[in-house]
Amino acid sequence: MGLASDRFGHRKTLFAGLAIFTVASFGLAWSEQVWQLLSLRLLQAIGVCAPAVIWQSMVIDKFDKKTSQQIFATIMPLVALSPALAPQLGVLLTEMWGWHSIFVVLAITGALLAMITLSLNDQPKAIEQRSSISADLKSLFGSREYMGNVIMYGVASAAFFAYLTGMPEIMSQLGYSAKDIGLSFIPQTIAFMVGGYAGKKLVAKLGDDAVLKQLLGLETVAILMVFVACQWELSSVWPILLPFCLLAVANGALYPIVVNRALSSAAHCSATAAGLQNSLQIGVSSLASAIVAAFAVMAQSAVGYVILGCLAVMWIGYLIANPAVTEELTIPDNSRVVSDE
What we know:
Layout: H1 2-8, H2 10-29, H3 34-62, H4 65-79, H5 82-97, H6 100-117, H7 133-141, H8 144-173, H9 178-183, H10 185-206, H11 208-230, H12 238-264, H13 270-294, H14 299-321, H15 323-330, H16 334-340
Helix pairs in contact: 1-2, 1-13, 2-3, 2-6, 3-4, 3-13, 4-10, 4-12, 8-12, 8-13, 8-14, 10-11, 10-12, 11-12, 11-14, 12-13, 13-14
Protein name: Bcr/CflA family efflux transporter
Domain Major facilitator superfamily (MFS) profile: 1-327
InterPro entries: Efflux_drug-R_Bcr/CmlA, MFS, MFS_dom, MFS_Efflux_Transporters, MFS_trans_sf
């Protein structure tokens, strides 16, 4: 979707994606067999990729770097509400009108958004201004600033996914009920939103570079606390849940900063950059979830080691995106040598 958006414009690509999503949702509402359900869900997922990617590109294209960071910091915490609210809305619709009504509502929502999309004033790049797909991808993979920030975003998200995959099994092994497991996701959702809006205020006051360094420190402390808690035989989930809420605060503030930095460094192909960023983030997060799921019997230890690995890669991403820091760590201070002589 990102590649198409950079070549045909945001409006056309976004409308096409929403149209696919809407048609698939209507089909799902009337599906009667499993193969129909799975096939249409795949089509629905393909369609929803368009808004998931293009909104980020639109922010980069329409606003300067400072303003776009504030917009990301406003929207991203709201996205965290969806995992908490969507299941509740789904249960309500199912109880009132049956499970088919969920997809009817999604289809109506998609149709309304598609109509709104048609009102957008958007022009694709002129042919002479477009670069080839291979050139765009080569520039993205060759950009330290882009790749470093994408790595930080991906592994920070992977730590979150590893926890979300392992926590139900951990709580089940500790004897918690299904209701308790569901309620345990509320504190981290609130923490993520608090982090997002606190980070927005801090960035406006201190700048994103200073805040990013502080957030990496907070991520380090929180992950180490979770890792240590995961090595002990626990009788309660709180020794893991509390430090993870600290990690959720850090992630809520970190996401807008690194996403804005990555996409702002690739303004010439912002939609392609957003698409690649989201693909890498989903891929790394899925890998983290798969590893934890593979060791579900020892989920507590698995979660601890996976998020510790995410922390190590996160710092690697920071050093890639900030080569000046690497140089300070490796190059001796010549001025001091001269003064000593």
